[in-house]
Amino acid sequence: MALQMSSIRISSHLKTQLTTKFSGVRFYSAPVSGSIPASKRKYVPTSGTYPKGFKVSGTIVGVKPKNTTKPDLAFITSDTPCAAAAVFTKNKFQAAPVTFSRALLQKQNNSGLRGVIINSGCANAVTGKGGLEDAEAMAAEADKIQSATNATIVMSTGVIGQRLPIRKILDGIPQAQQALGDTHKHWLTCATAICTTDTFPKLISKTFHLPSSSSIEYRIAGTTKGAGMIHPNMATLLGVIATDAPISPAVISPLLKHAADRSFNSITIDGDTSTNDTVALLANGAAGGQEIVSQDSADFKAFQDVVTDFATDLAKLIVRDGEGATKFVTIRVTESSSEDGARKIASTIARSPLVKTALYGKDANWGRILCATGYSLISEPGHPVNEVAEIVPEKTNVSFVPTDGSPELKLLVNGEPETVDEIRAAQILEHEDLEILVRLGTGKKEATYWTCDYSHEYITINGDYRT
């Protein structure tokens, strides 16, 4: 029996899904053409100021056989040896590049590093002994063309459980060396090469000064990738930060850890911690000045603030590019009796699927925020938490804070629900940026998390990620 199509009603959502399925066009994920969505172009810099002594490149090796147009091998090098540190995922199934790079930094005592080689398209994770040999081979080839030894850390990103097309990568590393340069174009191409489901390359550069060398202009640049499988411990992405400031290998690790905890470990997109998460900091001292050798020095504290602020800006770009995301959400928990408690509460709200879907639907369903707050500190069997009076319902306040500077919209005041102006709530939720403020009324500590909403598109992207 022939169907009369005119009599069938198709919902707008179904139309969207059909269009997506058969045309290949996605509304929030990276377009198949490789172009950057119009709404994301404002986050891509058109110029930059990059650290002295570093050169970078992004080249095509075809890690995925069908890739013939997108750079998928990034190479970041320093003319001189660097102090270096990295923070890694705590996932028990750690990828071969993580295992290799951690061991190399320990062996070198965070000194003598010359660069990072990164491939996208394949994570080289859960690949056994062969995967570790592949990571070692990548580093050895990069060392060889830099006339160095034990000087290159490795990162990979992409599908888990598949071996790298290692011969393609090794054959492509000399080409990556030939393409090295220090211009903005070089850095942007390098940032593009580490992307997977990202819709835009994430690149930032800045200048700064240190107390002991106020006449010297130091530079810092960094690139990250990440759009899904984003949740702390640590980090939740790949990233490289490079600077020409001089810092001792002995103090670079605590500096990076401090920065990571307040940036990359304070974001979540979907609550999944990857097998490959790595963020590295390289400092070659090429700009000169007094080397930072003590954590008690004014220079260390100033530099730590610079790196923390810089890492926070990079981390926020990852949230803005969350798979399928339409909103950037700041979750601030204040008046807490402990910072750890505030972080746990903020993290729980940030990864709640019910909160995130309500935000996507522009629904001021503050009950979901309160619910996530209420269960955030419940002890799990075998994992007790300190029984501190962190949450007192009669003292708890919840508000939406608009980004246009207008007064906050109070939803819950001292445990009592407000009569919500739904029209104003809808207006606030129309904006791309939103802050959720939770005041606990039990102390003076606070914590901030950054997250995004869940859309239909998140399911679409991850439902066919391998295909």
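(ticket continues) Second input and output from the same batch:
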Amino acid sequence: MSGGLGEVYKRQAPRPGSRPAAAARPREEGGDGPTVLYGWHPVVQALGNAQRGLHRLLATENAAARLEAEFGGAVRITPELVRPSDIGRLLGPDAVHQGLYLEAEPLPAPGLDDLPADALLLALDQITDPHNVGAIVRTAAAFGVAGIVTTARHAPGATGVLAKSASGGLEHVPFVTVRNLAEALIELGERGFTRVGLDSDAPESLDALTVARPLVIVLGAEGKGLRERTRGCCDVLARIPFSGAIRSLNVSNAAAITLYALGRKRD
């Protein structure tokens, strides 16, 4: 991409009878619609990922100028200049979009057989809140997790709110979607993975564990925890040792503590 801001980012005048750029709302969660990414970090990371197919980029003038500076004028897709309110109409009034909205292709999804033999994985047992899953993805990217195992059902789509909460982590940690989580854990166990389930009532304390890769950490939904069959597929159940009055944490915080604790012991 060449030329300055005035040459490259031209506001396109609407055709007679046409709607503004933000009139047609794509499906954000599931279905056959595009993956929707918004906000600075998710969009910039997606634009920098050659594996991510791109369809449409909306940007305010300020955001477009920031993108040009970020990529040295070589943005992979020319943005359509819009007002902040145009993006707001697409996403709703509570979305913090920072002037950027991207419609893109879903990333290629690896299978269990595609994962490295010494991988560090997370497995999510029916965690459905997109804010929590997005925060887990961000943490996973920070700790070098090779993949997140989840089911097609009882899991949010990797788009919209989840992508914003992940803050660009989706470009670095793939989802490995399986039909049945318990069967996937059995298969990982047969491949030599140690399966550690996080359980607030477990007799084993997390700080007493010493584990090596390959390793999969299994997290359950808040309130329900791990399902019985999922628990039965773990080699060990462990709890975070609390010393204060509150004896539980948000699942994304629990994931971060567990990854840090087990990684520190391994190193």
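Agent notes: Residues 14 and 20 are 7 Å apart (CA to CA). The longest strand covers residues 54-59. Closing as not reproducible unless the customer responds.
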